[in-house]
Design brief:
alpha/beta, Alpha/beta knot, five-stranded parallel β-sheet, 5 helices, globular
Length: 146
């Protein structure tokens, strides 16, 4: 499975760039992954147009989405690994939120909770939770220390 994490807008903070790179590297130990810095919601939605054996699965991070525990995230990843998903795309949207059309076109909508987070910080939290999900699946002690 190819894992892609997409976000809208340029990363300004060097510390966020460093954390993003670190978590992408950690995730890559478990699964192929790629970070994508995109310019618009439309660019995110175009990621679904890629032709492959199966359509990419688009997961929008949205405050109105389903809240998950770290264990739920691990189960979500395992389900996609086991069902043969070729490409799983997690996307963090624009500052004013996803359009209704984008929400309707997504395969899933997930929430990081009721708090509002800056988009750059939300990205790091998402990446850490994806990494944590893979460590849970592999029985790595990273998650056990919480």
């Amino acid at each position: 499975m190819k894992l892609r994490i997409a976000w809208i807008g340029k990363t300004k903070e060097a510390s966020i760039q460093a954390l993003t790179a670190e978590y992408l590297k950690r995730i890559a130990r478990y699964n192929a992954c790629e970070g994508l810095e995109l310019g618009s919601e439309e660019a995110v939605l175009r990621l679904r147009e890629k032709t492959a054996r199966t359509a990419p699965v688009l997961v929008l991070m949205d405050s109105r989405g389903r809240a998950m525990t770290s264990e739920d995230m691990a189960d979500f990843l395992r389900d996609h690994l086991e069902c043969g998903t070729q490409e799983l795309i997690f996307a963090i949207g624009p500052a004013d939120g996803w359009s209704e059309a984008a929400r309707k076109s997504a395969s899933a909508k997930l929430s990081m909770g009721p708090m509002t987070l800056p988009h750059e910080l939300a990205r790091v939290v998402l990446l850490e939770q994806i990494y944590r999900g893979f460590t849970i699946l592999k029985g790595h002690p990273y998650h056990g220390g919480h």
